[in-house]
Amino acid sequence: MEKLSPMAQGLMNRYQRAGEPAPDLMYVDRGCCRQHGATSVQILFNRWVDAGMVIRLDAWHWMHRFDAAVRTDSHPKYALFKSALSGALFAYNRADIELLVKSERAASLNKYRELQDDEVLRHYISKSILKHHVRRVTLGAQETFRVVDNAIQQLKGPDGLDDNGISLFKSAEAIDEVWAAQQKHLECIQDPPGMPMYTVVRQSTRNGIHLPFYSCIRGNNSLEGFHLHLPRMIPGMLISRTNDLYCFEWCRKLINRMTIVYI
Ligand SMILES: [Zn+2]
User: Fold this and answer.
1) What is the pLDDT of residues 195-245, one digit of tens each?
2) At what angle do helices 141-155 and 78-89 cross, to 10 degrees?
3) What's the average model confidence in pLDDT over 104-128?
4) What φ, ψ does residue 189 adopt, rounded to 5°?
5) Residue 190 alpha carbon to ligand 1 centre in Å
6) Is residue 114 part of a domain?
7) Which range marks the domain in which residue 194 is found?
8) What's the rounded Cα separation, in Å, for the pair 146 and 88?
9) Cα 65 to ligand 1 centre (Å)
């Protein structure tokens, strides 16, 4: 940390000299929070923290930490587990999804006539298009806890075995240990309340339908689209809707129906 201090001080000084306010938000891969005392990042950027800067843990890194308890990422239940983690954290803006599907349907009325919106979305809309036209929101620490805990409990049992009876997790104790350690970050992987995570860069037109083109300030851009890629790896994906959010709840449902899905 001592070696990083001149860099942090220099950065804050440059902001100050340029008359720029402290950033509102900083994403980190470690040092996000601590039960007692300041973290190394908070100490490094103390002036910005004092000015109100919020520090958040990058969600991709949070999910990656669970790999320590996974036997191998080539296990057939690995993608399902990662999907559950992602689906436990993020949901899609329903209005954005509906507008995007509408734009896809506008390309060919005949082609999509027999298809549900979910099917159009899953099979005909690429992750890069989705990324630019659909906003995601975090679901809240409680909901994230509930879904992740449910997934882990089920995958610790027969649902977590491959065809040879090999478990996804190294052991129940291993995943319990990782999960216990990661629960303290449930708050700091959520979007900060009241902070807009998206800006409209421009308006674009897709098959005659006007769509906002969004840019996301969230730190986990590497994650953008990651969980969209996963559904294509998993047969039997289901998508459900809530009143205001379009949730990729397939991971939750898959876990409930796992024995059906994996035949
Ligand atoms: Zn944290």
Assistant:
1) 888 989 999 999 999 999 998 887 644 333 434 444 443 333 333 333 334
2) 160
3) 89
4) -105, -5
5) 10
6) yes
7) 58-261
8) 8
9) 12
How remote is the CA of residue 55 from the centroid of ligand 1, in Å?
Answer: 8
Q: How far apart are CA 227 and CA 218, in angstroms?
A: 15
Looking at the predicted structure, is the pLDDT value of residue 15 above 90? no
Task: Using the mean position of ligand 1's atoms as its centre, give its distance from the Cα of residue 7 in Å.
Answer: 23
Q: 161-170 pLDDT, tens per residue?
A: 999 999 999 9
Structure tokens, 34: 């601590």
Q: How many domains does the chain have?
A: 1
Say how far residue 14 (Cα) sits from the centre of its chain: 32
| CA 31 to centroid of ligand 1, rounded, Å | 7
Of 141, 161, 140, the closest CA to residue 81 belongs to 161
**Which pLDDT score, from 0 to 100, does residue 216 have?**
86
Task: Examine residue 253 and state whether it is found in any structural domain, yes or no.
Answer: yes
Tell me the DSSP string of 11-24: HHHHHHHTTPPPPS
Q: How many CB atoms lie within 10 A of CB 22?
A: 16
Q: In this prediction, what percent of the chain has a pLDDT beyond 70?
A: 83
Q: Count the alpha carbons within 13 Å of 199 in the hemisphere toward its beta carbon.
A: 2
**Residue 166's Cα: distance from chain center in Å?**
28
Q: How far is the CA of 57 from the centre of ligand 1 (A)?
A: 6
Whether the CB-CB separation of 141 and 187 falls below 8 Å is answered with: yes
Bridge-partner residues for 25, per DSSP? 54
